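so my prof wants the structure for this chain in the tokens format not the other one, which i didnt know existed until like an hour ago. anyway here's the sequence
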Amino acid sequence: MAALRDPADGCPWDRRQTFDTIAPYTIEEAYEVADAIARDDRRDLRGELGDLLFQVVFHARMAEEAGDFAFADVVDAICDKLTRRHPHVFGDAEARNRGAIAGSWERIKAAERSAARADTSALDGVAKALPALMRAVKLGERAATVGFDWPDAAGVRAKVEEELRELDAARAGGAPERIAEELGDLLFTIVNLARHLAIDPEQALDRANRKFEGRFRRIEAAARAQGEPLEALDLEALEALWQAHK
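here's what i got, hopefully its the right format
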């Protein structure tokens, strides 16, 4: 990486990159790692993990050039963090004997945030650049650490019904911005329902996407076998095909 960024003999593309220009590639590489895992392609996973590691090296090198930190500092920082947050593994004999305690990870993180800032919020550290679905999960989790939460899934389910009614009311005469706001509230509540059901909403939605894609491709193939494209079929025929291939 140092050679690629060398001002005299390095690669022109690598030399002109900044943290801002590289960040989208970092996110893309993380998604490609997840895709290789979803496909259970271990050979591809090896390569994608290398690509992701390269992103870490790239950022660390730019930081080192600026005099901020180096790659070794990144490794030291994560080792220190893992040690602090696993007292049942790395702590004294008493902490190891107590074993893992439910919720301790978030409590330790909260204590770290409090030590770092005088004016803290339970929501500090939830990155604004996260995908909206993932950020909604983390915001709900953080709020729950200070007791701001529904007592059970039934309470969240009732809130879903309330948000649906508010969406219907907005659709009946609201401006597009109001409808979008109410739809966002509904989505946020559904994410919290998933949290109370101990379901990862990202994975649940991904499975639903894959299920829909598989069924849709099957009805496309069935329509072609009948000699008609999907767009030539009416809704009744489309529904019949869909039900036949569920």
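also thought this was worth mentioning. DSSP finds twelve helices and no strands in the chain.
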